[in-house]
Amino acid sequence: MTRVLLVYHDENVADIEGDELRRAGYEVDRCAGPIGGEACPVLNGRRCWQVDKADVLVYDTWDAELGHPQLIEDLLDLHPDKPLVLTSPVSTELFSPARRDEARSLIVAGSRAELAGAIQRALHRPTRPETLRARARREQPSYGRAHW
After folding, report:
1. Predicted confidence (pLDDT) per residue in 1-59, tens digit
2. Which of 22, 57, 91, 116 has its CA 20 to 30 A from that of 13?
3. What single string gives the DSSP state of each residue in 4-42?
4. The pTM is what?
5. Which residues contact 3 (CB under 8 A, 6 or more apart)?
6. Integer angstrom CA distances of residue 50 from 24, 30, 65, 92
7. pLDDT at 62 (0 to 100)
8. How far apart are CA 56 and CA 3, in angstroms?
9. What is the C-alpha separation between 104 and 2, in angstroms, rounded?
């Protein structure tokens, strides 16, 4: 079963869309946000355990005042192999110039009815070259002193 991680700011919308995705056959988790007094790892430049466990992310970008481009760039940097679906378009002009082409290629679900289809498109999208490079860097063996 495909595991979807919902990263939503509005709990009510997350509940509704999570229920619809469950009925469509997905396993759904919601971002726990900062827990245990610790800040969000992604916002602090660290990988997130919930993102690691998910097959695909759905990020609620409806509220334009929340600094979405920076969080999206951080997610792409920290989890380059994780498919990402946005719930609303985000202006590519808000991204750093080096990321604008990548931002244009993000999958957007224009409505709740389009969400499951957008998830499937994201899951079946060809792997981006930068994703392959990042994956190769992570999988390279470390030959530090501990191995000698």
Report:
1. 999 999 888 889 889 999 999 999 999 999 887 665 677 888 788 899 999 999 999 99
2. 91
3. EEEE-S-HHHHHHHHHHHHHTT-EEEE---S-TTPPPTG
4. 0.79
5. 26, 27, 28, 29, 53, 54, 55, 56
6. 21, 9, 24, 26
7. 74
8. 7
9. 25
Task: Supply φ then ψ for residue 58, to 5 degrees.
Answer: -120, 115
Give the model confidence (pLDDT) of 120-144 as tens digits.
999 998 766 655 555 555 555 444 4
Contact (Cβ atoms closer than 8 angstroms) between residue 90 and residue 63: no
Q: What are the backbone angles phi and psi of residue 108, rounded to the nearest 5°?
A: -120, 130
Residue 118, both tokens: 């957008």
Instruction: Tell me the C-alpha distance between 76 and 85, whole Å.
Output: 12
CATH of 3-147, one of 3.40.50.970, 3.40.50.2300, 3.30.360.10, 1.25.40.10: 3.40.50.2300
Long-range contacts: 106-115, Cβ < 8 Å, 24+?
Answer: 106/72, 107/83, 109/58, 109/85, 112/16, 112/17, 112/20, 115/17, 115/20, 115/21, 115/58, 115/85, 115/87
